[in-house]
Design a protein that fits this description.
With about 200 residues, this protein is mainly α. Helix content is about 75%, strand content about 0%. Strands 1-2 form a two-stranded antiparallel sheet.
């Protein structure tokens, strides 16, 4: 009996982790949007209350909202894609550790970019750089996880399988990464040009 107790305790512990795994995975996955959410809220606040009441800054901060929302979406998709891969390759605990480690990289990287490029002086440049980098990272993630496939008739991540080779899906990258960034750049350029024509509003 004394020999079997540790084994039973270990089994119960493993079952508890497995029961909590979906909730923990989802919570850690949603952590990926936290920097973008705070950035969007800050940009919205600054658009309403621009520095020195110069409404020219509001134009920049409004466009920054577009880029911060794009950043949040791409971060969520990137994390979701990697999570699917990790659930195929690893057990729940190592997968959870990797999810947390990913956020430990992305959060400081966002803060470092905002600090390096001085978000108070040039917010639009900061968020354009962050959004563009995130789109590029997302395209790499799509290639890395391209060997993870869903069996026909399955709708659960737990049933994902891996195949031997990765492949570069150009149309998917264009649709998921290039097109959203292209739209954001198109809006940015036109807003800056119009603001310049209407009075040189932009301060970045």
């Amino acid at each position: 009996m004394t020999v079997l107790l540790p084994s039973l305790e270990s089994t119960h512990r493993q079952r508890a982790i497995l029961d909590l795994a979906p909730l923990l995975f989802e919570s850690c996955r949603l952590l990926s949007v936290v920097p973008a959410v705070f950035g969007t809220l800050w940009n919205f606040y600054r658009a309403l209350r621009p520095p020195k009441n110069d409404w020219g800054w509001s134009v920049d901060y409004i466009v920054c909202i577009l880029w911060s929302v794009l950043t949040g979406w791409q971060c969520l998709q990137l994390t979701t894609g990697l999570l699917k891969r990790w659930r195929v390759y690893y057990s729940p605990l190592p997968t959870l550790i990797r999810l947390l480690a990913l956020q430990a990289i992305c959060w400081p990287a966002t803060h470092f970019t905002l600090t390096l490029l001085d978000h108070e002086a040039r917010p639009l440049i900061c968020w354009t750089a962050i959004g563009t980098t995130t789109c590029c990272s997302r395209s790499i993630q799509m290639w890395v996880t391209s060997n993870i496939v869903e069996p026909p008739g399955s709708s659960s991540d737990a049933n994902m399988k891996r195949r031997s080779k990765r492949k570069w899906n150009g149309p998917a990258v264009l649709r998921e990464c290039v097109l959203p960034a292209g739209i954001a750049y198109f809006v940015t350029v036109w807003v800056l040009m119009l603001s310049k024509e209407l009075g040189g509003f932009s301060s970045s």
